[in-house]
Design brief:
Layout: E1 2-7, H1 11-16, H2 21-27, E2 32-36, H3 47-50, E3 56-60, E4 70-74, E5 80-83, E6 96-101, E7 104-110, H4 119-144, E8 148-154, H5 178-189, E9 194-195, H6 196-200, E10 227-231, H7 233-236, E11 239-244, E12 260-264
Parallel strand pairs: 1-2, 7-8
Antiparallel strand pairs: 1-12, 2-4, 3-4, 5-6, 6-7, 8-10, 9-10, 11-12
Helix pairs in contact: 4-5
Length: about 270
């Protein structure tokens, strides 16, 4: 099973670009694709986006139009699909959707980005506090049913210094705060999940998956690794290859993120 995840930074815009999402989707070898920040409702999207040939599509838009939104594209019809994770505040926030596909629960997550000293950071903290126990329960339920789990998406936290180029300048910024990094450590240490890409690249800087549109961040590879495959140990052990599908040049980008694709031997 090949799974890819990408924050599209607006699905309508990404689909309109000549070298954009639709061309990428037509060429990908992925069996499941997780999207974040779609920022669109079904009625706003063309047929080729909501019903591309050969794909089963689940859209989970946000209640606030033009914000957030997640989606799942699967070549295999899911056995079940669930939106949200049981917390009322985030039930229709366009932050989380999961599907059971061929013995694996695959989820698309768009964790709030936050901004220090604002209500956005408070929202991020509430989300993290509620989401960690859900992750624990998800793994337990899936394991009892003989399924593996992978939560893909934009987690909006760089876990280690190796996960962003200019880490010293970002220690007081949302996305690299000590408390955020400690929370992500709990996802791995307490909840028992595995950072799949880091397990395959244990001694590397990056590979980064997001670069600001400002300045020369992309050209200089001054990026952040915030797009993860967070998997149950059994599935992580079957990860054979991972790649960040970074555009060949700035002008060919269709998002400020790049797809992160992992080949699992299942």
């Amino acid at each position: 099973m090949i799974i890819s995840t990408v924050n599209v930074n607006g699905l309508r815009a990404a689909a309109r670009k000549e070298e954009g999402f639709l061309r990428w989707l037509a060429a990908t070898d992925a069996d499941v694709v997780c999207l974040q920040e779609t920022r669109a409702e079904r009625a706003q999207l063309p047929e080729e986006v909501i019903a591309p040939p050969g794909w089963h599509v689940t859209l989970a838009p946000a209640r606030d139009k033009g914000r957030a939104g997640v989606a799942l594209y699967s070549r295999i019809r899911p056995d079940a699909v669930r939106v949200g994770f049981g917390v009322e505040e985030f039930a229709d926030a366009g932050r989380y959707v999961e599907a059971d596909v061929a013995g694996v629960t695959v989820a698309s997550l768009y964790l709030p980005s936050g901004e220090v000293g604002t209500p956005r950071q408070e929202e991020k903290e509430r989300f993290m506090a509620a989401f960690l126990p859900y992750l624990v329960g998800l793994r337990e339920r899936a394991g009892a049913e003989g399924r593996e789990v992978v939560v893909c998406g934009d987690w909006n936290i760089a876990h280690r210094e190796a996960d962003l180029r200019n880490w010293k300048a970002n220690t007081r910024k949302s996305g690299f705060l000590p408390e955020e990094r400690a929370w992500l450590s709990r996802v791995f240490d307490e909840a028992g999940y595995v950072d799949v890409v880091r397990s395959l690249f244990p001694d590397s800087e990056g590979p980064y998956s997001w670069w600001s549109y400002r300045g020369k961040a992309f050209d200089n590879d001054a990026g952040w690794r915030i797009d993860y495959h967070v998997a149950s140990p059994g599935l992580a052990a079957q990860a054979k290859e991972a790649r960040v599908e970074r555009a060949a040049e700035y002008g060919l980008r269709w998002s400020d993120h790049a797809p992160v694709t992992v080949h699992y031997d299942v």
